[in-house]
Q: What sequence folds into this?
């Protein structure tokens, strides 16, 4: 009997975790092409400029141990499907996530018979575990628009200032950098904090 696969990335949440974006940006459209263990560190350190070599090696090992990267004979591939992952404008990796990554979601085999029964309305839905994500990420676009409207700056300028803060401060999330721009513009912070906490 054949199988179909249910992705545990949690697409219903509408948010892709930082690690999936990192893998997509690292491999681009060549997801099935292997990279050697040192090569991935060079990409992160020299091509993308995200980390130094020591940090890159530590992150690589973390992602192997938690199942985000498949390692065979010194060759690495993403262990998840990143074909539908979109890379947000100005995205940079979050060190907090990479220093202690969650266990990677896996493809779960479901017998075709179960799927057929569900289509006929027999049996309950298949429950798959979703990967925990930072809920604030889903509010970045709204946050950017509200800060731009309230400050009188255009969206591009707000994003430019936020990215400058990220470069200056190191491992800071984009939503935090946007909040820092709002604070710099002396905007009332409580509404923004309440929004990203929802």
A:
């Amino acid at each position: 009997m054949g199988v179909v696969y249910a992705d545990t990335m949690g697409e219903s949440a509408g948010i892709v975790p930082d690690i999936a974006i990192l893998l997509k940006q690292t491999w681009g459209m060549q997801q099935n092409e292997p990279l050697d263990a040192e090569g991935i560190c060079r990409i992160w350190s020299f091509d993308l400029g995200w980390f130094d070599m020591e940090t890159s090696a530590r992150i690589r090992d973390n992602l192997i141990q938690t199942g985000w990267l498949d390692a065979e004979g010194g060759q690495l591939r993403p262990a998840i499907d990143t074909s539908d992952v979109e890379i947000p404008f100005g995205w940079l990796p979050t060190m907090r996530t990479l220093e202690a990554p969650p266990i990677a979601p896996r493809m779960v085999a479901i017998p075709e018979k179960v799927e057929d029964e569900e289509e006929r309305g027999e049996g309950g839905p298949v429950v798959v575990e979703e990967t925990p994500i930072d809920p604030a990420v889903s509010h970045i676009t709204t946050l950017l628009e509200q800060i731009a409207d309230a400050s009188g700056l255009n969206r591009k300028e707000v994003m430019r200032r936020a990215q400058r803060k990220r470069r200056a401060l190191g491992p800071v999330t984009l939503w935090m950098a946007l909040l820092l721009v709002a604070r710099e513009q002396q905007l009332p912070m409580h509404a923004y904090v309440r929004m990203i906490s929802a």
